[in-house]
Every structure is written in structure tokens, then in C-alpha cells.
Amino acid sequence: MQNEPLAFRMRPRNIDEVVGQQHIIGKDTALYKMIQNGHVPSMLLYGEPGIGKTSIAYAIAGSTNLPFFPLNATIAGKKDVEQIVSEARLTGKVILFLDEIHRFNKLQQDTLLPHVEDGSIILIGATTENPFHDVNPAIRSRCGEIFQLKRLTLEELVQLLKNALHDEERGLGKYSIDIHDEQIKKIAIASNGDARKALTLLESVFHASEEIDDIVRVEDSTIEHLAKRIGVYGDKGGTHFYNLLSALQKSVRGSDVNASLYYLAHLLENGDLIAVCRRLLVMAYEDIGLANPNVGAHVYAATEAAKVLGLPEARIPLANAVIEMCLSEKSNSAYQALDAAIKAIHEGKTGDIPMHLRDAHYAGAKTLGHVGYQYPHDYPIGTFGGWVNQQYLPDNLQDMEFYRPVIAGEEKRMATIYEKLKSLKNHNNQ
């Protein structure tokens, strides 16, 4: 057993040993009470790697007398599933823990689903991907609950590490280790809410530390050297990556510079520079928009520079772009106006293009009635340029308005012009 990783050895043996995830498996939860009363429902466990999905499954199994079968959907075949189905027929009921359940193929699913439905197989599925996006609806419908796990808190990680340090049977308790509370806390902080990373880092620190007079003495420099990249969770293209993109955009939209830089840093550490550049460019036009039209050009220049430079230098222009967007005036009026127009078309609010706006650059256009267009540049209006009062929307839509200006930044000036032109049009139409 000592050859197995510390994180494996320290898995909870029953639900009372679970550290963290108390909103799911704490003593006051319905799940805890059901298991204590001998009932285990089928369920999905959703969350980032290392925060307890497998541990909870094993803890549940250890709290019951039911046969327990762990499978990984990435390597399991139809024969593996059939063996578990046969076992369920013999014993009456088994627990199947299916890791990476979003990889479950249709053939495996067809073999398993009837037995999950009749209760002979209790399915505990684990996934790092959003189950509403990546888990087949047939599986979801047969699982009574979808539990979303959270990263462990600093206090929970410290408790987990101390458990491992004191446990003589499964942990490091049989060794004399000189490690103080601040060092344990450093390991917990570096682990970024990930229980597996915390225990793996502790084990690495233990093996990298010098033994003097039968005492393993832990140095701060050892922890710092081993912890450099432990907070980075790199599932490029997965659910967590898209959550980071979403968090970045919402933080910029909310003008929180520090949160925005944090999420940008995390995204760049994951390495998908192109996806980050695309999202930043969208944000410049979606969230800053007409309030500061120059931002679009600035962000485009920054993202192009980032692609030419590559990582790690790409972080420099992107940091400039993110801070500028955070602190800029903001407006979403332009794309909201276009979406309103698209919605109107989909609702059937359409009409004929006015005759004077139709193409007149060919012989015979006059015969078709394509006449009457007034060229605005021929009608100067103050310092604006040119404007003439004529109808542009179809007859049945001419009073529709899609654009609602936001009175912010440069758009404030545009809004004044917009309202002035509306008043001129209304005055001339009276």
C-alpha cells in the first residue's frame, strides 16, 4: 500500500471521513441521511479535478455493504459493463462508479440503462465537464441528483494535510517530520482548492526534504520550488476553460481590474492564446461599444501583437487591453439594437423596400419606379455633414425604433445627434 500515492491512500473510507463538500455530504444533508439509512441513490458528481468526486464515491461505498465496481469510461468496454450487469443479477444490487461519464458511448449506455432504471445498478457518475452539456440526457434522467462540487477551502485543505501527517497507517504519521503550521498553510494555498494536489505536493515535499537525526526537516524553499505551477488547471477547451472566459468577460464588464487580470492570467497559463484573443476582441465591441469606439481598434492591435509575439510576451499587450476595457465607459447599445432588428425579422415584421431606395444603376430602373431618392450630401446641415428627411424603413415599419442610446462616454455625443435628427424628422413630418 505504501507504494501507492499519498492522495490514493488517504481517500476517505466512509462518509464521516470526507473533508470538504459539506454542502453535499455533510451530516445535515439529505444525501448523508439517506446513506446512513441504507439508501444510495444514483447521482452525478460534477466538478474540477482533484476536489473529491472519486473520494465521495469510495466513501459512499465504504458506508454501505453493497458490492462496488469502479470503471473509467475512457477505457471501459461493453464487456466490462456486461460483467457488472451479471453481478447485479446475482447479488440483487451493486454500486457502479463511472469516472469520466461524459465519455460513455451509446453501446455501453444501452447495456447499462435498464438496470439503472430498475435499481439493480446504483450509478455514481463523475465528470469534469458540465453534465447539462456533455452527459447524455438518458443518463441524466436516471440520476436523481446532480451535485456540483466546490474547491476545498484553505481551512479544509489544512485539515486534510494534517490528517495525512498524523495518520500512521495510511499517511506519514509513522515518520518524524519537522513541519510547522505556516508551511502546511503554504502547501494548502499553493494547491488552489485541489485536495489531490495538496496531498501530492505534501508527499513531494516530504521526499525532497533532508533527513537529519531521523527527523525529516521541511524547508520553505523546498515548498516554494515544488509549488510553482501547482495552481494551474489546464483543461484547454473544456468546461472550466469556458467558465474562465465567461468570468473574464463578466469581470471586465463589471469594471473589476483585479478580477479581470486574475482570470486573464489563468487563461494564459492554460495556453490557448487564440481563444483568449477572440474573446477580448468580442468584448471590445459587445461591452465597450459606442461608448468608446477607439477601444475596438486598440484591442485589435493588442491581440494581433499578442499573436505575433506569442507567449509569454503576449501577456504584455493583452494586460494593456484588459485594463483599458475595464476602466472604459461601456455600452452594449449597438449589438442590442441589431439583435432587436433580427428579432423583428424573425417575428415576421418585414415589408417592401421603399421604391426610392432600390437599385437604380441600370437601364430600365425608372420604368420599374426606382426613382425619387434624395442624396443627403446635397443637403448640408450645420457641422454634421448632410441630411435630408426621407423614408428609409418599409411603409409598415417606418415608426419602429431598434436603437436605444446609452448615455456614456462618446455615445453621449452620438445620442444627442440621434435625438436631434429624430426631432427634425418628426417636425418635418407634422
Would you mind describing this structure in some detail?
The protein is an alpha/beta fold. The protein folds into 4 domains: 21-148, Rossmann fold (3-Layer(aba) Sandwich), CATH 3.40.50.300; 154-226, Helicase, Ruva Protein, domain 3 (Orthogonal Bundle), CATH 1.10.8; 239-326, Up-down Bundle (Zinc Finger, Delta Prime, domain 3), CATH 1.20.272.10; 333-429, DNA polymerase III clamp loader subunits, C-terminal domain (post-AAA+ oligomerization domain-like, Orthogonal Bundle). Helix content is 50%, strand content 9%. It has helices spanning 6-9, 22-25, 30-36, 53-62, 78-91, 106-117, 131-134, 137-142, 154-166, 181-190, 195-208, 220-226, 239-253, 257-270, 273-288, 294-309, 315-326, 333-346, 409-429, and strands at residues 43-46, 68-72, 94-99, 121-127, 145-148, 177-178, 210-212, 215-217, 380-381, 385-386. A 5-stranded parallel beta sheet has the order 2-3-4-1-5, with helices on both faces. A 3-stranded mixed beta sheet has the order 6-8-7. A two-stranded antiparallel sheet has the order 9-10. Helix 5 (78-91) packs parallel to helix 6, helix 9 packs across helix 10 and helix 15 (273-288) packs antiparallel against helix 16 (294-309). It is elongated and about 95 Å long.
